[in-house]
Amino acid sequence: MTDASLLSRVQDGIAWITLNRPQQRNALDVPTLKALLALLDAHEADPAVRVLVLTGSGRGFCAGADLAEWAEAEARGELESYGWTETAHALMTRLHTLDKPTIAAINGTAVGAGMDLSLCCDFRIAAASARFKAGYTGMAYSPDAGASWHLPRLIGSEAAKRLLFLDELWNAERALAAGLVGEVIADEQLLDAVGEFAARLAAGPTFAFAQTKRLIRDGANRSLAQQLEAEQAAGLLCGRSEDAAEALRAVADKRSPQFKGR
């Protein structure tokens, strides 16, 4: 699939999605938000897709909200009603709740909602040139696309407040030390390294991955006893899956399993 603002291709079970507005530093306007949301829905429903990778074209990952679009809406007196926030929230929620594993390949600066987009992914792998900036308080705003929820859970409350209150620009190494990203790769090796990592996930038991994602996502709101019940229910589903049967056959045959994700 090719769109003015997005590029997408599926190869070997991996859906590569590229934000494609390099002249706007891949800023998120409403049409791009809607197109990305629709693309996520399509890839989630496509059995040929087992892993999703999100990256940006050009030198930046994503500059956040399209401020030019915001300015036009404000000039019309529609800043609070033209739909950016609601559409962005729908997108962030969808990305966060996808059953399939997601990877943000952060190829440059990620600011505001662009950083938030990466936070919604399961894994964040950054190029050495990547930079992270919340951007909200610098514009006299509070977070509006999930940073206040994700950051304390990823890096702790005090570090989250430092990034948000002081609006600091963090380089890739500082982001790695804080736990904001899981790995830093040389710029020229980023996509190859992400491709190798995505291939490992795509070859795995993605049905079990989906159950595990749900357990992790929902577990914070449960007691241990409730979580154990949820784990038992998820385990029963996994045990009845084709992948579980294949795993047992592979053990008996002394070979590597060939998982299908069902």
TrEMBL record:
Q: Which SUPFAM superfamilies match?
A: ClpP/crotonase
Identify the keywords attached in UniProt to this record, alphabetized.
Answer: Isomerase, Lyase
Q: Which GO terms describe its molecular function?
A: isomerase activity; lyase activity
The species is Pseudomonas knackmussii (strain DSM 6978 / CCUG 54928 / LMG 23759 / B13)
User: Which Pfam families does this one have?
Assistant: ECH_1
The name under which this protein is listed is Enoyl-CoA hydratase/isomerase
Is Translocase included in the keywords of this UniProt record?
A: no
A GO biological process held by the record: fatty acid beta-oxidation
Family assignment?
Belongs to the enoyl-CoA hydratase/isomerase family.
* CDD domains in the cross-refs: crotonase-like
